Amino acid sequence: MALSGETLPSSSATMTSEQPKKLSGLSTERTLQVPAEGPASILAMDIAVPPTYYLQDTYPDYLFNLCNLNHKEALKAKFKFLCDKTGIRKRHMILTEEVLKANPEICTYMAPSLETRINMSVVEIPKLAQEAALKAIKIWGRPVSDITHLVFGTTSSLDMPGADLVLSKLLGLKPTIRRVMMYMGGCNGGAAVMRVAKDLAENNKGARVLAVCVESTILGYLAPNENEIDELVAAALTGDGGAALIVGSDPEQNERPLYEIKWAGETFLPNTEHAIVRRFTRAGLNSHLLKHVAGVIAANLPKFLTDVREVVGGPSWNEMFFALHTGGSALLNGVEASLNLTKDKMQATRNALSEYGNLQGASLLFALNEVRLRSEKLGSSTTGEGWDYGFLLGFGPGVTMEALYLKSCPR
Fold it and tell me: Where is there biased composition of kind Polar residues (predicted)?
């Protein structure tokens, strides 16, 4: 199995001086790119969610009342069964009852609503990103002007200029900020954002990368229907939220690293490209999932992580911490069983699933934030719940499995 993720060579590797050199003739200050000395680290992180949330045990009644579908008793019973099996306590959403009543086409099955959804998402996604970013920057403790790069990932918005430019203006980032916009990354999108941020930090001395992933149900919200069981599953799982992280190499004295990113890479499983599919229609972004996709991922994960360990080394699975995509209790149970993990290994991810639901690409970053918070709550010696090494894992279309191998830092 081929694995990617090695540090990229710098385009300026042949320079004789170790210090960056100023380029002349430019009105803004720039330097030639030289590599950093050490590995990339997560220097700060935080999350943001919309203020409105829905309790999972009352959500079926709310949704079927809102969509005028209470006469479909069998479908409602099926949806309630799915909601009860998710392991979710509550989910936050931008689409409040007030918003949906003002835009009834969104909760009318297959009604033309794509334009309404896009117009809403291009405003709301950057706003949620701004909130998460400001919280992370405050924890980081350095001025916004010190951010040199921005990587923004989302499957929940589509526009030009992109959400990266909008966020740059909202935060007051320099016009010379180097931006990467990543659309349609799916449920492994947050891992891909971090992989790119790692390479940028390690190949640009002094870089400080703002890495952001924000997801919402705006594009994919669909009224329940007997012919769209995949959408019914998505409606039982998905929520809204954004995560922001500051990534950089060679931490300065006033910076306190949370995790070193020792390795990042991905693989896709052959002949599984139809297992997770999302397509734009006039009614939004529709989802189609293979019924047993969670089992497929769980069955193939041990081989993937074993291959990774041949590259990076590392302890046994139960001597590590884990932060996973919060794809539902079936996925977490399957991974737990396939790796023979003790029950505590999934607790941080289960906490993220319970409180926020499936946040698509942002979900594994919410899980990592829970690892950080749980480490504080437990009084652990490291940011990895007392363990030195751990995995950040994303699973998405392809079927793609993405991993970041992390080293925790002393608390």
Answer: 7-18
- Average confidence (pLDDT) over 173-184: 96
Look at strands 321-324 and 241-249 and give their pairing: unpaired
pLDDT for residue 51: 97
Q: Under a CB-based contact definition with an 8 Å cutoff, are residues 155 and 132 in contact? A: no
With b meaning 16 or more CB within 10 Å and e meaning fewer, what string describes 318-351? eebbbbbbbbbbbbbebbbebbebeeebbbbbbb
Write out the two tokens for 234: 């998505």
- Banded pLDDT at 30 (limits 50, 70, 90): low
Q: Is the peptide bond before 308 cis (omega within 30 degrees of 0)?
A: no
What are the distances in angstroms from CA 301 to CA 60, 74, 332, 345?
A: 33, 36, 12, 16
Tell me the sheet residues that pair with 402. Answer: 266, 394
Element (H, E) at 121: helix 114-140
What's the sign of the alpha-carbon dihedral 269, 273, 277, 279? positive
**Catalytic residues, which ones?**
187
- pTM, rounded to two decimals: 0.91
Residues in CB range of 123: below 8 A, 6 or more apart:
none
At 3-29, the pLDDT tens digits run 444 433 333 333 334 444 544 334 445
Kindly report the average pLDDT of the chain as a whole number: 91
Three-state SS for 253-282 is CCCCCCEEEEEEEEEECCCCCCCEEEEEEC
> Residue 245: what residue type?
L
